[in-house]
Write a structure and sequence with these properties.
This is 2-dehydropantolactone reductase. The protein is built from twelve helices and ten strands. By secondary structure, the protein is α/β, with parallel strands linked by helices. The chain is globular, with a radius of gyration of 18 Å. The protein binds NADPH dihydro-nicotinamide-adenine-dinucleotide phosphate and isatin (ISN).
């Protein structure tokens, strides 16, 4: 499995299986056995990186599935539930520190996560009990106490990351997880370039948006042509387009045949011209699925 190097020297497997979106079950306590089985299948097929979050309600399922292999063979991500951008949903826990400690003990049943993120920058002291900078300091303490190996952010704009950097943090964010695909190459202005210049790895959620939600669209014919040229599925072409830009895709499938395919992307390379062409065609359409102004709520 290809890896990326993070700014703290840690390595991160270059593609992740997401335990959110289609698996989202916040507010229900019962274990989803189909998710446990699918996560085990994904691990057996070679996924070593699982993307979770408090808000997904699936930390218990991840905890069950990861018993399958030694802990050090896996890379587990979780995220502090910042709630929605309208401040109507909040974490079940007092603060980000407590959230991870309790989820590790009661759900993940493992002593640490490899990566812990603030799920969004929508953090207000009056609502969350901590300001954005104090939330970040909670994450730093999680590293100091051994509960998280690496820390980062998600859905952060340039100015949100700058606010953390301006606070003179002990630890810099290592990752910014954002919505990224051919139809959303800038979740917010300049964010990809800024992260790459500051040695912050960009993780792409919804990398297959153009296939699942974007059809018909301007990249369809070209991606189909590349699919024929490389004898790879359209999903594989889009995951490769993401990876070759130094961006880590987080995807998922509920279906066995797709899960294996997602990992069979390390034996071919798109040319620079092909990467550029997908990017240019993609700019003709905008598709944003998450964290829109109108979105506000999770459900
Ligand atoms: N930080 C954040 O705020 C967010 C993080 N995430 C993370 O990213 C993960 C992945 O996000 P997601 O948007 O689901 O990622 P993708 O864009 O990779 O979409 C995956 C979905 O696409 C479907 N799909 C795959 N190929 C095709 C195709 N050829 N035609 C039609 N449908 C297809 C799959 O369906 P099927 O099951 O039928 O194969 C699956 O449900 C989440 O689980 C979560 O971990 C997601 C959103 C926000
Ligand atoms: O997986 C996710 N589904 C979501 C829906 C709304 C906001 C964030 C998310 C996720 O992270």
């Amino acid at each position: 499995m290809q890896t990326f190097k993070l700014n703290n020297g840690a390595t991160i497997p270059a593609i992740a299986y997401g335990a959110g979106t289609a698996w989202f079950k916040f507010g229900q306590d019962q274990i989803d056995t189909k998710l446990v089985d699918t996560l085990k299948l994904a691990i057996k097929k070679g996924f070593t990186h699982i993307d979770g979050a408090e808000i997904y309600g699936t930390s218990g399922e991840i905890g069950e599935a990861i018993q399958l292999v030694p802990r050090d063979q896996l890379f587990i991500t979780s995220k502090y539930n910042t709630g929605d951008s309208l401040y109507t949903i909040r974490s079940a826990y007092e603060n980000p520190y407590q959230s991870l400690v309790k989820e590790l003990e009661n759900k993940f049943k493992t002593p640490y996560v490899d990566l812990y993120l603030l799920h969004s920058p929508y953090i207000k002291k009056s609502f969350h009990g901590v300001s954005l900078v104090e939330a970040w300091q909670n994450l730093e303490k999680l590293v100091e106490d051994g509960y998280a190996k690496t820390i980062g952010v998600s859905n952060f704009k340039v100015e949100d990351i700058q606010e953390i950097l301006d606070s003179n943090p002990k630890i810099k964010p290592a990752v910014n997880q954002i919505e990224f695909n051919a139809y959303l190459q800038e979740q917010t202005p300049g964010i990809v370039k800024y992260c790459q210049e500051h040695d912050i790895l960009v993780e792409a959620y919804s990398p297959l948006g153009p296939l699942s939600k974007g059809k018909p669209g301007p990249i369809d014919d070209y991606v189909e042509k590349l699919s024929g040229k490389y004898h790879k599925a359209e999903e594989q072409i889009l995951l490769k387009w993401t990876l070759q830009q130094g961006i880590l895709p987080i995807t998922l499938s509920t279906k066995e045949e797709r899960i294996g395919k997602f990992l069979d992307i390390f034996d071919f390379e798109l040319t620079n011209e092909e990467i550029k062409q997908i990017s240019e065609l993609g700019k003709q359409k905008t598709l944003r699925q998450y964290w829109t102004k109108e979105y506000g709520h999770y459900k």
